[in-house]
Amino acid sequence: MTPDVLSQSEIDSLLDILTSGDVDFEEISQASSEKNIKGYDFRRPDKFSKDQLRAIQMIHESFSRQLTTSLSTMVRSIVTCEVASVDQVAYEEFVRSMVQPTVMGVLEMYPLEGNAVIDMNPSLVFSIIDRLLGGKGEIFGKPRDLTDIESTVIERVFMKMLEILEDSWSTVVDVRFRFESMESNPFFVQICPGTDMVLLVTLKVSVGDVEGMVSLCIPYFVMEPVMDKLSSQIWFASTGKNKEQDSRSFLVSSMGTVRVPLSLELGDTVLSLSDIMRLQVGDVIRLDSATDDPVKIRVGSRVKFTGRPGTVDGRYSAEVLDVAWDGSLEEYEEG
């Protein structure tokens, strides 16, 4: 770095001030001490830029919003999830910060090489397991290792979380997360040397009255091939592109798999309450419709079609004759 060089006139002015005694040395000393000095540890160099950390935070904010909805449905309770921190630390520092025993899943990130880990606080794990098995989410006793049945239950939760994580990461990088194994002792999981820098994303999750942390740890060398794609500008560009079209196609595909009840209404009549109370097995109720009248076909609770009753291969059935709603079928599909 080239130092600033004073001109001759500046040197003369400085000498005149020093000779006259008008300079305040205490003010100069105080101004020097107020300078912002940031420490730098050469043994732990920063690998991620601020813009990259910002993009990663936005990815996981989207993940936390989706996880809130999905986990609430799964455990049938109020769930809140938010990003607590996004930081870069040494791997051994991350390992030493965890409790024992813990619940740690080892992940693969295809097509990236290497492993990542996801850690869930034991109190949160046992609360989720208790709710999934029909309980109220209560925690009994001290943290312990999971049984085989408990491991299978919480593995399903991890798998659901990884599906949502893939969807959140797909806005920037196409990554496939695969659950590999589960460990209770963090010191048995060595996904990288202890001095290597890792990305640490910490989520604060609450299930009912129980709160806990969920941590995602990814080594730097695993993410290095896609570091150029991690920027807030790329994230904003990818999330804004065709957002309305993508949302519509997602809703259409989701609604296509929804199962709704379909029923046939052969006719109706009106009876007094006293007549209904006197009904017995074998009584015949006369309907206010003829045998050749079209029947009403209900989707859910609404009449959507009219049809003609009959049989097919010995089973009761109905042939759709007309659409019962106002307007044409094309107008309905466009709407």
> Multimeric state of these chains?
single chain
Q: What is the percent of helical residues? A: 25-40%
Say what the CATH topology of the largest domain is: Chemotaxis protein chec
Write the CATH homologous superfamily of the largest domain. CheC-like
Q: Indicate how many domains the architecture comprises.
A: 2
* Number of E-type strands: 10
- Molecular shape: elongated
> Alpha-carbon distance between the termini?
67 Å
Order of helices and strands: HHHEHEEHHEEEHHHEHEEEH
Structural class based on helices, strands and sheet pairing: alpha+beta
Number of helices: 11
- Low-confidence residue ranges: 326-335
CATH class of the largest domain: Alpha Beta
On the 0 to 100 scale, the average pLDDT is 81
CATH architecture of the largest domain: 3-Layer(aba) Sandwich
Strand order across the biggest sheet?
A: 1-5-6-3-2-4
Protein name: Flagellar motor switch protein FliM
Main location: other
Domain Flagellar motor switch protein FliN-like C-terminal: 256-323
InterPro entries: CheC-like_sf, Flag_FliM, FliN-like_C, SpoA-like_sf
Describe the 3D structure:
It is a peripheral membrane protein. 37% of the residues lie in helices and 25% in strands. The protein is an alpha+beta fold. 21% of the residues are buried. Helix 3 crosses helix 6 (148-169) and helix 3 packs across helix 8 (232-240). The chain has two domains: 50-246, 3-Layer(aba) Sandwich (Chemotaxis protein chec), CATH 3.40.1550; 262-334, SpoA-like (Surface presentation of antigens (SPOA), Roll). The protein has eleven helices and ten strands.
